[in-house]
Design goal:
- The complex is a heterodimer.
- Chain A is mainly alpha-helical.
- Helix content of chain A is 61%, strand content 2%.
- A two-stranded antiparallel sheet of chain A has the order 1-2.
- Chain A is globular, with a radius of gyration of 19 Å.
- The N and C termini of chain A lie far apart (41 Å).
- Chain B contains no helices and three strands.
- Chain B has a domain at 13-53.
- The chains are: A mainly alpha, B mainly beta.
- At the A-B interface, helix 2, helix 4 and helix 5 of A face loops of B.
């Protein structure tokens, strides 16, 4: 795996964990009991911690300016998975999406662990140990669904699953992801063979941005972006000052800076 | 207050990350996050957090 490929892969998992962490922070008070709140708060802390650990590593390894990845990118430069773009439509859809995102992110993290870059291997292994715990929590929420919620989950599955499957570039990871998801969910929502066969295959139907693993030109919706990097006047006034500028307009993959593409006179 | 209970999945010999001693005791079943337990090393006296289900990874 060359450095640019690894950079794109790391951004895909870092940015997806970034958005996933905010799914937890925004929705955690919708829990029903103390363990919901403490688990969601703990998972949010971990996911955002994974993101920031990767950002700090990438800043050093790729010699990027500090804080640019977190505060200096436009929304269309973020590599978050499309699965997390649409807000949850209910408790069951929320839990389903947390599950699919967590399992999908781990499949890619686990594949990227097969690298000679020791800090990446060690970081991703640590993330996996924490994701093991996160998935135990999600297992508990899946088991605790009532009949109506299981129906809701079954209804939400095709749409969410399609986006989750589209995220995978690697056929073997995609196949393994499907297997894990079906083994987990089929007994919970009583999926018949016919229903399993009718689930989407995750074929990509629009032009694809391979680096960001999402449709070309697409980006998370403004309401979600505002939750991830608050830019409202009220939020900005309270932002802890950064020691560096975040207006350097970095371009992560094209070696020409945007301001140098302007006509020179 | 009673001592924290041994958890079903918890190994018996938790090593101190500072001095590698296994002479450690459980202080709390929860740490800064619910995924962590708080331990104290009875040899070097340092406290440390131990990740529950340490070294286990999700299915892949």
């Amino acid at each position: 795996m060359n450095d640019d490929t690894m950079k794109a892969q790391l951004l895909c998992v870092a940015d997806s964990n970034w958005v996933l962490g905010h799914w937890y922070t925004v929705c955690m008070l919708n829990g029903r009991e103390l363990t919901d709140f403490t688990s969601m708060a703990g998972i949010a802390e971990d996911k955002l911690g994974h993101t920031r650990a990767l950002f700090r590593f990438m800043e050093e390894y790729y010699e990027l300016p500090e804080y640019q990845l977190e505060f200096g990118r436009a929304v269309d430069q973020v590599h978050n998975m499309e699965l997390l773009d649409a807000p949850p439509q209910g408790w069951a859809d929320f839990i389903l999406t947390l599950y699919l995102a967590d399992v999908a992110i781990w499949q890619v993290e686990n594949a990227v662990r097969d690298t000679d870059v020791a800090p990446v291997k060690n970081l991703l292994t640590k993330f996996g140990e924490e994701a093991y715990f996160h998935q135990l929590c999600i297992d508990g929420w899946l088991k605790a669904l009532d009949d109506a919620e299981r129906d809701d989950l079954k209804a939400a599955l095709p749409g969410r699953l399609e986006l989750a499957l589209q995220w995978f570039d690697e056929p073997e990871l995609k196949a393994r992801f499907s297997e894990l998801v079906f083994n987990k969910l089929a007994p919970i929502i009583d999926l018949s063979d016919a229903e399993l066969a009718a689930l989407p295959a995750g074929d990509r139907t629009s032009a694809w941005d391979a680096l960001r693993r999402r449709p070309e030109g697409s980006a998370m919706p403004p309401r979600l972006w505002e939750a991830v990097v608050p830019t409202s006047e009220d939020a900005l006034i309270a932002r802890r000052p950064l020691a560096v500028s975040v207006d350097d307009n970095i371009d992560l993959f094209v070696k020409v800076r945007k301001d140098e593409t302007e006509p020179q006179f | 207050m009673s001592a924290p209970q041994q958890q079903p999945d918890q190994p018996q010999d938790i090593e101190c990350p500072w001095c590698d001693s296994k002479n450690t005791e459980l202080l709390s079943a929860y740490g800064p996050s619910v995924a962590e337990m708080q331990y104290k090393c009875l040899d070097c006296g340092q406290g440390f957090g131990w990740m529950k289900w340490e070294r286990r990874l999700p299915e892949a």
